[in-house]
């Protein structure tokens, strides 16, 4: 029976060694780094067991046995770290601060056992025989060690089972849940038999820990979404992608974030996709349709996002692949083209195309609007006598006068070469007349070369049913009444001033 139990220890040692090798490659990943340490400590326990069997020197066996206590204490701690890292839960800060102190005290009591016998009830020189090392000894420090270790382990296992037990829609999580429940039951039964019925040569807790740890390794790593990608060779595809990406499980837990995205937006601490998106939106604009991108003044980068369902049938795993295309250059170009399509390049005002495309919008949105139409007199004379740059300057000076109107209350457009439209959103006859007079007064000057001669027509919408074209025609007729009365006089004064300037320059 003893030989059979030793053979079981050797097999258990091999079983605990395999994960150590596999996990060493992933030791830097948050999801697996604590699992890697935990599995290494389980293997250290296995080595400790084997060495006690093969070494006949009682002094060496005694000290080897003492090292087992801090190993087990560390193991319980890293089990807790492993499970919290896997389920993305933070360990309370006070535990992280207290544990190093407890471990140092534990280590101090263990290595000085010869002085007080608190951990083992004998010293290195009074060990009866090798078998005694495998017995349970209820020394004071050993009892405290056991209570602390078991408390940490039970707390960790409870958190783990709670995590699995509260995800009913994940069918592939039922197996691990049942496995760990059965493992706990087996552990309790073996320990009960060991203490009350038949004393096993090997501590049954060791076998339970090996079985439980291998279960953790299998379900956390071997059956993990990330590992499944490795197995199917899809990791290489992801690494070679141009787009930034995020891989998540079915319930939104993040498995992998592309390195560029993670570094650029410091996403190492995000655990769920909704947290990642919230964090990214502080620094970037995420959209799934170009129609959603309305703020053209935002300097943040633009990411087109796409969500794809990702299924690995062999592993019975479903997840999602979120792609983030950095389309900042495209969106900026789109905005520029959109701007050119709806705006006048010289003045920055809306153009005729914008007006014609928004007649129905104006009619629906502003039921009591009015129109103010303006036409610059003498623009052709400026172009013919002083060049087109001088004519362009005249237009820009007039636009500066139009900008005196409250921008929130008007929509201003250049509808032609020297023609302008001002839509007053909430108008009245008195308001339109006042705006007309203020604009004319602002453009007047004694010197015809500095004056901006304009003709202005206004029209107030008669009812909610009158269309934009009708209001526009009435304003246009009003404009031409003024144009007939003012244009000829201004042009004569302008021509006279041009002749005077020509004589003086010659």
Number of helices: 19
The CATH class of the largest domain is identified as: Mainly Alpha
CATH architecture of the largest domain: Up-down Bundle
Range of strand content: 5-15%
> What's the overall average pLDDT, rounded?
82
Form type: rod-shaped
Describe the model.
This protein has 506 residues and is an alpha+beta fold. The protein folds into three domains: 2-223, Rhopdopsin 7-helix transmembrane proteins; 232-333, PAS domain (Beta-Lactamase, 2-Layer Sandwich), CATH 3.30.450.20; 347-505, Reverse transcriptase/Diguanylate cyclase domain (Alpha-Beta Plaits). The protein has helices at 2-24, 30-54, 58-86, 93-111, 113-116, 140-165, 174-196, 204-222, 225-231, 234-239, 259-265, 273-280, 328-342, 352-357, 359-365, 379-386, 388-402, 429-443, 468-505; strands at residues 244-249, 254-257, 285-287, 302-312, 317-326, 350-351, 370-376, 410-414, 419-424, 454-460. The chain has a five-stranded mixed β-sheet with strand order 2-1-5-4-3. A five-stranded mixed β-sheet has the order 6-8-9-7-10. The model has no long low-confidence stretch (mean pLDDT 82).
């Amino acid at each position: 029976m003893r030989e059979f139990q030793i053979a079981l220890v050797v097999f258990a040692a091999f079983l605990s060694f395999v994960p150590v090798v596999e996990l060493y490659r992933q030791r830097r990943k948050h999801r697996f780094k604590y699992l890697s340490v935990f599995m290494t400590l389980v293997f250290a326990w296995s080595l400790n067991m084997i060495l006690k069997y093969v070494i006949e020197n009682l002094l060496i066996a005694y000290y080897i046995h003492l090292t087992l206590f801090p190993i087990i204490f560390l193991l319980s701690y890293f089990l807790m770290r492993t499970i919290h890292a896997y389920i993305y839960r933070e360990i309370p800060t006070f535990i992280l601060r207290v544990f190093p102190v407890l471990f140092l005290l534990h280590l101090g009591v263990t290595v000085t056992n010869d002085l007080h016998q608190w951990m083992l009830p004998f010293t290195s020189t009074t060990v009866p025989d090798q078998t005694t090392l495998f017995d349970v000894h209820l020394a004071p420090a050993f009892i405290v060690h056991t209570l602390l270790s078991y408390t940490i382990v039970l707390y960790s296992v409870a958190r783990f089972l709670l995590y699995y037990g509260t995800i009913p829609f994940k069918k592939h999580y039922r197996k691990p849940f049942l496995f760990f429940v059965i493992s706990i039951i087996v552990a309790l039964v073996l320990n009960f038999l060991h203490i009350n019925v038949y004393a096993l040569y090997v501590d049954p807790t060791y076998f339970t820990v090996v079985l439980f740890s291998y279960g953790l390794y299998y379900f956390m790593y071997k059956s993990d979404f990330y590992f499944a990608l490795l197995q199917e060779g899809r990791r290489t595809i992801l690494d070679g992608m141009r787009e930034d990406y995020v891989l998540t499980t079915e319930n939104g837990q993040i498995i992998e974030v592309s390195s560029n995205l993670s570094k650029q937006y410091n996403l190492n601490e995000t655990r769920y996709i909704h947290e990642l998106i919230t964090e990214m939106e502080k620094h970037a604009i995420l959209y799934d349709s170009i129609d959603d991108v309305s703020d053209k003044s935002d300097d943040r980068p633009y990411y087109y996002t796409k969500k794809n369902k990702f299924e690995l049938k062999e592993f019975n795993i479903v997840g999602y692949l979120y792609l983030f295309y950095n389309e900042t250059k495209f969106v900026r170009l789109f905005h520029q083209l959109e701007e050119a399509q709806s705006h006048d390049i010289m003045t920055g005002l809306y153009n005729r195309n914008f007006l014609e495309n928004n007649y129905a919008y104006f009619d629906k949105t502003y039921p009591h609007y009015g129109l103010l139409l303006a036409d610059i007199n003498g623009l052709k004379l400026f172009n013919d006598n002083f060049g087109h740059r001088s004519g362009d300057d005249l237009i820009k000076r007039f636009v500066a006068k139009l900008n005196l109107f409250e921008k929130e209350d008007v929509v201003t457009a250049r509808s032609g070469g020297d023609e302008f439209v001002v839509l007053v959103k909430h108008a009245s006859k008195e308001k339109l007349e006042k705006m007309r007079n203020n604009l004319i007064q602002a453009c007047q000057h004694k010197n015809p070369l500095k004056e901006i001669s304009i003709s202005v027509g206004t029209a107030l919408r008669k009812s909610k049913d009158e269309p934009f074209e009708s209001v526009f025609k009435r304003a246009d007729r009003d404009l031409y009444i003024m144009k007939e009365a003012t244009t000829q006089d201004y042009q004569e004064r302008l021509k006279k001033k041009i002749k005077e300037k020509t004589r003086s320059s010659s």
